[in-house]
Amino acid sequence: MFAFIDDHREAHGVEPICKVLPIAPSTYYDHVAKRIDPSRLSARAKRDEALKDEVRRVFDANFRVYGVRKVWRQLGFDVARCTVARLMKAMGLEGIIRGKPIRTTVSDKAAPCPLDHVNRQFHVSAPNMLWVADFTRSPHSRDPG
């Protein structure tokens, strides 16, 4: 949203654009001031910027395979694990997941759908008049037992 305002402010002005978009002009001007002068950022934002470099360093040093838990342990200083998770998500970093994903159902598009025995009439005149359940199991799925 801020990039859009930056791109079109010369042609239309900030206030008219902000009137159309759901943002106050003061919010835009505050964002611009913080972008120009990083000392105006909040304490959390300042710490996040410093931590992003460390998280990136640890992630890259470990062949870009470590997830949140391992990056958090490798940092070597006191930081919350949820903070590392939030920063990794914001930076688009994701660890590698081992093994194959478990597929419990393999749907067959050619198989006919079961008949609708209740004619999609889910409005009943009294309680306990119509009970509906759906326990669909593919014949190709594995037996859990």
TrEMBL record:
Which named protein is this? HTH-like domain-containing protein
Q: Spell out the InterPro entries in the cross-references.
A: HTH-like_dom, Transposase_IS3/IS150/IS904
* Pfam families the record matches: HTH_21 (PF13276)
Query: Which organism encodes this protein?
Result: Mesorhizobium australicum
Q: Which residues belong to any copy of the HTH-like domain?
A: 46-100
Q: Which PANTHER family match?
A: TRANSPOSASE INSF FOR INSERTION SEQUENCE IS3B-RELATED, TRANSPOSASE INSO FOR INSERTION SEQUENCE ELEMENT IS911B-RELATED
